[in-house]
Amino acid sequence: MGTSEELRRITMTPAARRALAAAGRLFYGRGIHAVGVDLIAAEAGVTKKTLYDRFGSKEQIVVEYLADRDERWRAFLTERLDAAPPVPRARIRAVFDASRAWMSDNGSKGCSMVNAHAEISDPAHPAHAVITGQKQWMLDLFTRLARDVEGFGPDAADRLGRTLMLLHEGALVAHGLKVFPDPVAHARDEAEALLAEAAER
């Protein structure tokens, strides 16, 4: 996600928080374009005027929805990483296990960022930076973890980071599509097999 200077955020009042919670449920469940401001207001128990007073536009509601989800995911993942053994492979496994737990509780339709990007591909949209920023953050994380794996030089570690990212993101999409059971665990196991194979070289 962009820095606070790059991304405009609003100060949350109780009414704005209710509206954001309603918007989050609706956007994730039905899609961003399918949900109008009238429906968000009705679900939140606020007036349409209150929504515009607090957020200014539907675009800003989308920004707040995605930024809030991103912040909660990063905090959730950081907690899991902090609790993992200080071993690179264990920390890589912890990322996949965290995603599996998150998807179980928050992601029946797959990754909210991937879903949002299917509807918001214009880089000029203010939410676009939230979406791409989160994915860049995940790539940076996997790359840092890969660089800690013994025996990998910088170029090989960068390649491994990208491969781990692809396994992770593919699993999130497969989870939302429900094409086969437990794709995040499958991706985790494939990542562990990849690391084991590399260690034997």
Overall morphology: elongated
The total of helices stands at 9
Strand portion, in percent?
A: under 5%
Write down the secondary-structure element order. HHHHHHHHH
Secondary structure class reads mainly alpha
Total number of β-strand segments? 0
Q: Detail the poorly predicted runs.
A: 1-5
Biggest pleated sheet:
none
Percent helix among the residues? over 70%
End-to-end CA span? 37 Å
Please give the radius of gyration in angstroms.
19 Å
- The oligomeric state is single chain
- The averaged pLDDT comes out at 93
Chain-wise SSE layout:
Blueprint lengths: L13 H17 L6 H8 L3 H8 L2 H26 L4 H19 L5 H8 L8 H20 L6 H24 L5 H18 L1
Helix pairs in contact: 1-2, 1-4, 4-5, 4-7, 5-9, 6-7, 7-8, 8-9
Structure description:
The protein is mostly helical and 201 residues long. The protein is 74% helix and 0% strand. It is built from nine helices and no strands. The longest helix has 26 residues. The N terminus is likely disordered.
In a nutshell, what does this entry contain?
It is built from nine helices and no strands.
Name its key features.
single chain, 201 residues
